[in-house]
């Protein structure tokens, strides 16, 4: 039988159309990545009885929780966490070696998202000179752009520049972040030439100013049984206060603290939720062609500011999580309405956890301590001067790494190996230090394998100090008996994070196997049927993928 050409091509067209219809790739309309800055894994349960059914508990009750998710590198800081979550990679490869790091070749300090070649948009200040330039690998958001021929829309947003920029990746439509001085949301010329009209309108509403009124507890203060009593001494005070106690008159505090004050209150998260909803609505996220997934990366940073200032066991921290829970509920309800329940995929995780205040821990009779970084550096340089007759051989103790002054070493033809041996010997004897390693010789160091691997993963030769030191559990760098807290170490309180997924393609369940932060990006990539980020070292979590 012979067919004419037209008949064949019509047949081909039908075949093509039906093929197209049958093989359309199955993807959610929208992915919402939620990073809660400084959220320890145990906060999912610590306050669970008071979470609503629509926020954290909705994620746990409807979604799938990886209960043993750990950070596989050191140090555990914000910029690294956001980079690793979205790249599946580690500082050794993705290059974000700290919030700040030191370019070893020049000794120049670099902020993670610093980019002097771009200009602020919506600001003339330095806060706008930011881009993802220092991030050396692609993100899962970049891969989504590549996979859909740039038809997917990608947005990143956070109070912190690094919390919005690094997750959004290099190909994002935009990242937005908050400028404390003006109270405005801004961006940079890396993304655009002017702020979208809807954002200009939002900024004109002065929402941050309106939130800064009064901070009282959401529930009667005596019901905050998970926290030390109000007014405990382990916190840092807001500027202008000598004692911290509810209720806080934020309107009055604004005078001394500026609009940036909102960061250190739960209302910074509410403001972030507001802007996330604005982006969803005004950029029509989740309304793309079938198979073309959009991506919104949201990072809630106020939990970190409040955590640093008030520490975990406080009413301020508890109230901040109870309020964030309500913000999440509102965000999820909005997504149900706009994108449709089951049409979007949410994952929630954290960039790191947080320690208890060392003085608090000591008062409870636990082992804890403050590592006097500045004094140790001074003593170390004095010791090196004795041996090598030169000042300032050590440039800095940053990110729990000893950074050498290579200019001095080279100009004076000193033996770098001798210097490093001397430093290792010295640092081993310092109070609070567990381990020290010359990173070129870490293979020989007698350090437990799990810590050693995290040191290697975190060590970027061009941007990290040549010698790493590990402190004892519940120790961190800080002034003796100082209030507040921080993070950065390998301990579970800093390195154990939530990783919960909900929505499209996710069935309810729980996984108790050990997974890592580096597994998040490949898991999302697998769910979306897109290539993994180009520096990825993680694995898709099988328990999540097999849910489908
Ligand atoms: Zn922090």
Put simply, the count of helices is: 21
Tell me the count of domains.
2
Oligomeric state of shown chains: single chain
- Here the CATH topology of the largest domain equals Alkaline Phosphatase, subunit A
β-strand amount: 15-25%
CATH level 1 name of the largest domain: Alpha Beta
CATH superfamily of the largest domain: Alkaline Phosphatase, subunit A
Main β sheet profile: 11 strands, mixed
Tell me the total number of β-strands: 21
Tertiary shape: globular
Organism: Algoriella xinjiangensis
GO molecular function, one term: metal ion binding
Keywords: Metal-binding, Phosphoprotein, Signal
Protein name: Type I phosphodiesterase / nucleotide pyrophosphatase
Q: Summarize this, please?
A:
The protein has 548 residues and is an alpha/beta fold.
List strands and helices in order, with pairings:
Blueprint: H1 5-23, E1 30-36, H2 43-46, H3 56-62, E2 64-70, H4 78-87, H5 91-94, E3 100-103, E4 108-111, E5 120-121, H6 140-147, E6 154-158, H7 161-168, E7 174-179, E8 184-188, H8 197-204, H9 207-211, E9 214-215, E10 248-249, H10 250-257, H11 267-282, E11 294-300, H12 302-310, H13 315-338, E12 344-349, H14 358-363, E13 369-371, H15 373-388, E14 394-398, E15 401-404, H16 406-411, H17 416-428, E16 433-438, H18 449-458, E17 467-471, E18 475-477, H19 492-495, E19 496-497, E20 499-503, E21 509-516, H20 520-528, H21 542-545
Parallel strand pairs: 1-11, 1-12, 2-21, 6-7, 6-11, 13-18
Antiparallel strand pairs: 2-19, 2-20, 3-4, 5-8, 7-8, 9-10, 12-20, 14-15, 15-17, 16-17
Helix pairs in contact: 4-7, 11-13, 12-13, 15-17
Bound molecules: zinc ion (ZN).
Keywords: Metal-binding, Phosphoprotein, Signal
Protein name: Type I phosphodiesterase / nucleotide pyrophosphatase
GO molecular function, one term: alkaline phosphatase activity
């Amino acid at each position: 039988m012979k067919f004419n050409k037209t008949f064949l091509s019509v047949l081909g067209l039908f075949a093509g159309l039906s093929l197209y219809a049958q093989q359309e790739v199955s993807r959610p309309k929208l992915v919402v990545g939620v990073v809660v800055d400084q959220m320890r894994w145990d906060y999912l349960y610590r306050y669970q009885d008071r979470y609503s059914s629509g926020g954290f508990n909705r994620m746990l009750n409807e979604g799938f929780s990886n209960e043993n998710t750990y950070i596989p590198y050191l140090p555990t800081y914000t910029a690294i966490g956001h980079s690793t979550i979205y790249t599946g990679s580690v500082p050794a490869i993705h290059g974000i070696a700290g919030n700040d790091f030191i370019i070893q070749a020049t000794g120049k300090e670099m902020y993670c998202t610093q980019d002097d070649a771009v200009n602020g948009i919506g600001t003339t200040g330095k806060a706008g000179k930011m881009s993802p330039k220092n991030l050396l690998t692609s993100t899962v958001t970049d891969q989504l752009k590549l996979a859909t021929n740039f038809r997917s829309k990608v947005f990143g947003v956070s109070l912190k520049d690094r919390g919005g920029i690094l997750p959004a990746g290099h190909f994002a439509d935009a990242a937005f972040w908050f400028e404390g001085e003006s109270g405005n949301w801004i961006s940079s010329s890396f993304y655009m030439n002017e702020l979208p009209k809807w954002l200009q309108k939002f900024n004109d509403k002065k929402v941050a100013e309106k939130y800064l009124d009064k901070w009282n507890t959401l529930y009667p203060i005596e019901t905050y049984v998970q926290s030390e009593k109000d007014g405990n001494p382990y916190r840092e005070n807001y500027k202008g206060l000598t004692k911290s106690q509810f209720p806080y008159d934020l309107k009055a505090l604004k005078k001394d603290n500026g609009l940036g004050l909102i960061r250190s209150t739960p209302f910074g998260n509410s403001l972030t939720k507001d802007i996330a909803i604005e982006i969803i609505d005004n950029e029509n996220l989740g309304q793309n062609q079938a198979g073309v997934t959009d991506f919104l990366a949201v990072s809630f940073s106020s939990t970190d500011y409040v955590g640093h200032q008030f520490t975990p066991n406080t009413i301020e921290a508890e109230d901040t999580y109870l309020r964030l829970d309500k913000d999440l509920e509102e965000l999820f309800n909005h997504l149900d309405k706009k994108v449709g329940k089951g049409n979007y995929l949410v994952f929630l995780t954290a960039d790191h956890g947080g320690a208890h205040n060392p003085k608090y821990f000591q008062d409870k009779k636990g082992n804890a301590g403050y590592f006097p970084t500045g004094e140790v550096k001074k003593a170390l340089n004095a010791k090196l001067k004795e041996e090598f007759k030169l000042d300032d051989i050590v440039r800095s103790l940053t990110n729990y790494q000893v950074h050498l002054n290579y200019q001095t070493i080279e100009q004076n033809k000193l033996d770098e190996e001798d210097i490093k041996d001397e430093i290792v010997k010295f640092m081993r004897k310092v109070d609070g230090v567990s381990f020290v390693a010359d990173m070129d010789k870490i293979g020989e160091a007698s350090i437990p394998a799990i810590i050693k691997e995290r040191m290697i993963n975190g060590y970027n030769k061009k941007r990290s100090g040549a010698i790493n030191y590990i402190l004892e559990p519940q120790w961190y760098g800080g002034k003796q008996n100082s209030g507040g807290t921080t993070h950065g170490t390998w301990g579970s309180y800093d390195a154990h994070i939530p990783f919960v997924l909900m929505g499209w393609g996710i069935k309810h369940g729980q996984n108790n196997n050990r997974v890592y932060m580096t597994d998040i990006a490949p898991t999302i990539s697998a769910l979306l049927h897109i290539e993994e980020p180009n520096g990825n070292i993680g694995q898709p979590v099988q328990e999540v993928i097999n849910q489908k």
